[in-house]
Amino acid sequence: MPGPGAYWFDKEEMDAVMEVMKSGYLFRYGSESDPKFLHTVSSLEKEFAFYCNTRFGLATSSGTVSLLASALAMGLRPGDEIIVPSYTFVASYTSMIFAGLVPVLTEIDESLTMDPDDIESRITPHTKAVMPVHMLGNPCNMDRIMAIAKKHNLMVLEDCCQAAGASYKGHKVGSIGNIGAFSLNIFKTINSGDGGLVVTNDEALYETAFGVHDQGHKPMRFGVEVGNRNILGLNFRMNEITAAVGLAQLKKIDKITTVLRQKRNRFKSLISEAEGFKFRILNDPSGDCATMCTVIFSSVEEAARVSRALGSKTVDKSGWHVYYNMEHVLNHLRQIGQPHSKGAYPKTDDILSRAMNISIGVVDGGLGAGWGININSSDAEIEAAALQFVKACKG
Fold first, then answer.
1. What CATH class has 254-394?
2. Domain residue spans in the chain?
3. How many CA atoms lie within 13 A of 342 on its CB side?
4. For the segment 64-97, what is each residue's pLDDT rounded down to a tens digit?
């Protein structure tokens, strides 16, 4: 059950992989004097940065690592607090915990993204950053979030892992805050099986993130540096094969989001005759990825009944995307005085218990979106799914 990009794996991806295999260079570094070296990793970095209209791009081994490298690049230190929404994938929390940070959670609103009205109440003298998560491909209300961050002198790390291809008021997500992190996991808009990307306009952030991902080295090194490294790093590098698939997928990203928006608009128009629900808020309807159609029912009972009739489930039961379903994270946070057991975020609890995610492009039972359509669904299939939903609503 993959994301939309995986439905469009074709000759382009296979040819790109074979070209790398034939070159003999699978490592991201190679001999620049050898025409066989294709440098697909550095090409992906440059092309994705260009796509996001940022100065710098960095390819990593995962979206989780992209978040970790971004946090460390921003100079955040153990004990610093970072504000994160209560509805996001577990990696938004664990990457910060591995950096020694304290995730402080906020409520969400009916966009299913961070509620700007709740941010300032979470700020303490230890707060150093805020992490808006563009959840389910829906950009956050970045105007308000950036205004709050500026007011309180906070860094902004955009978690764009579920939102490659999204934009907010003409700006690609990831380019609005100080730094942005993306995922190329199989469930994402475009993918290379796994992998991640970081974008920023800040050269110092880029250099530090690069060092974190590659043993402390400076960007675009040749050979092994001695005496020039000043930060500690690990190995979070992407390889040439992964990048080759990513490059092929990147060429399809605008077509993917265009098709998804068309199919979701069609589906939404067909189910609009039903009653008892509303669509989630889109902070920028023209910039949303359209990987999901999220509906919010008027009652918990109605949400449970309809989702059950369709063989699906409400969002509050969608595993490691809901704060109180992450037992290992909860245990850690309790130890550092951050109680996040069920009921800690009543607004979030209420919204998620009444919400249902319907697949448009990302077919993922883990997101509560195991039912719906996909990017290849025909008009007839869209109409059949819509009719099924309407009948379920009518009981």
1. alpha beta
2. 4-250, 254-394
3. 11
4. 999 999 999 999 999 999 999 999 999 999 999 9
